[in-house]
Amino acid sequence: MPVSGLRKVTMTYWGFDKKAHTGELIVNREVTDDVVAVFRQLYRWRYPIARMEPVDVYKGSDFDSIEAANTSAFNCRKVAGSSSWSKHSYGKAIDLNPRENPWVEPDGSVAHDNARRFADRPLDRPGVINPGDRVVRLFERYGWEWGGYFNGAKDYQHFSKGGG
Predict the structure, then answer these.
(1) Tens of pLDDT, residues 31-53
(2) Are 72 and 85 in contact (CB under 8 A)?
(3) Which helix H or strand E contains 6, and what residues bound it?
(4) What's the rounded mean pLDDT across residues 88-102?
(5) Among 69, 82, 105, 117, which residue is least crowded by beta carbons within 10 Å?
């Protein structure tokens, strides 16, 4: 993905502290309108987001970004445990509240200690995404798929345009 195909989207979001914050996502220009529409609705709902910074702040480390509970999009990297490029490498994937919505292995384990209490998918916690909820339906309205529906390990934070 050439840099010319990426766009920086600066937007306001509600934090878990119930205050408005300004954040940035780097996305593929082809999905910019989707991202703006989705996050505009999340803002209207006052859906809490812990942090929203480009992964460059974490020197490209997906692990460090997740440890910081950071919502992010573009990151030139491979799919975990694979030789294939992630949709994040093309700016067509977003990880939303990775602490509250962790990657969960079939045995229930998670890679991040800060996410352990969210592995069992509590229904009533702010920022948690569950099957069929309004956040999943909102992304689906724009043709995005949710990692919580993956076979095997579940990637509850992950939304991507065009699968994977």
Answers:
(1) 999 999 999 999 999 999 999 99
(2) no
(3) strand 6-14
(4) 96
(5) 82
In whole angstroms, give the CA distance from residue 164 to residue 159. 8
Query: What confidence category does residue 135 fall into, taking pLDDT thresholds of 50, 70 and 90?
Result: very high
Q: Which domains does the chain have, with CATH numbers?
A: 3-57+70-161 (3.30.1380)
For residue 164, how far is the Cα from the chain centroid? Answer: 13
63 beta partners: none
pTM of the complete model: 0.93
Q: Report whether pLDDT(1) > 80.
A: no
* Rounded CA separation 23/9 (Å): 8
The residues pairing with 161 across neighbouring beta strands, listed in sequence order, are: 144
CB burial readout 124-148, b (16+ within 10 A) else e: eeebbbbeeeebbebbeeeebbbbb
DSSP 79: P
